[in-house]
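Service request form, structural biology core

Requester: graduate student, group of Dr. S.
Request type: structure prediction, single chain
Budget code: on file
Notes: please return the result as structure tokens.

Sequence provided:
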Amino acid sequence: MKYHQINSALFVKNRRKFMAEMKPNSVAVFNSNDIYPISADSTLPFAQHRDIFYLSGVDQEESVLLLFPDAPYEHQREILFLRETNDHIAVWEGEKLTKERAFQVSGIRTVYWLQDFHKVLNEMMTYADTMYINTNEHYRATVETETREARFVKWWKERYPAHNVAKSNPILQRIRSVKESEEIDLIQHACDITEKGFRRLLGFVKPNVTEYEIEAELAHEFIRNRSKGFAYTPIIASGNNANVLHYIENNQQCKNGDLILLDVAAEYANYSSDMTRTIPVSGRFSERQKAVYNAVLRVKNEATKMLTPGTLWKQYHVEVGKIMTSELLGLGLLDKADVQNENPEWPAYKKYFMHGTSHHMGLDTHDYGLLHEPMKPNMVFTVEPGIYIPNEKFGIRLEDNVVVQEKGEPFNLMRNIPVEVDEIETLMNE
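Core staff response, request fulfilled:
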């Protein structure tokens, strides 16, 4: 891995939190992701399933974690199963985790090779009454590919039909959404790498540069700072491209007078950052661009203050909508009649700001979190209002990552990334 080793104490804490929520006499199993094929012998780069990483720190394919807090013997309560390394694998792929190294990474002492999994699981199932299966129940998830986890669940249900079934996901949604201090430090590190990439761009962007050249500059800066690269597919949208919310072609020339919407961020140690900034190709905003930009910035600043313990996500968005409506009236994009006659299910402001303002973030860019439950301290959210004006051929979005605090305003993990108009213009024209 490119990143520095994470202290195993984090994963020990995470497992304790999960096991404290399990039913009596139950087992939970978590599988790594597959390495996904492309064609012929080509594959996508491996990306670990975030749940097994969260609970073990193991960042390797063909790995399984078994948790059984009520097992009759202590050594059976936390077990890792790993692909056995050998000299051939070491030469062709690089050495995999040894049992000792796996303990250093995870804090788990009982480590078996993967070929022993079925035998050990069978013994555990003779003791247990319930199996926790791990299904993806994220509110944004659309899964069309059968995952390694899904194959295991199918196999397990056929092999052990007499056991009760419980779900891991509701537990994970709660415990993963509230970050440990070590996790906040890792997200901060990802944000700091993102800052370096953004500052690099401010001295690079000029008329006629292409969106993909900007992407390349960011990739260079991220990787040279121990990131695997982008935390998500980068959006580098110049001119009217910014009005396509998930524009990822990144193949156009950036023209003098245009703005560039940059929704780009680095990962670090599998933890995401998630930044959006909008900058002028020429290094100077027009008066109209500046007016819209500052309206978005004011909404962002006010929306940030509202991310406090006890806040309900749905009501939060209603309140942000009121702030945005006021700004759109001030810009002349809406009039009073638009607001008076609006459809409550799709308020007038949605014509120019059609997406949500905030989502959980952490190991996943759109991280786990139960949206119907009140916000808690140490949850991490994005704040990302935008105004999109196709008729004027530009769109502006600004996005920071903030930590909900026990008291006071949220802590902005992107506090050092330039966002004020004057600072951006100054840095672009140095």
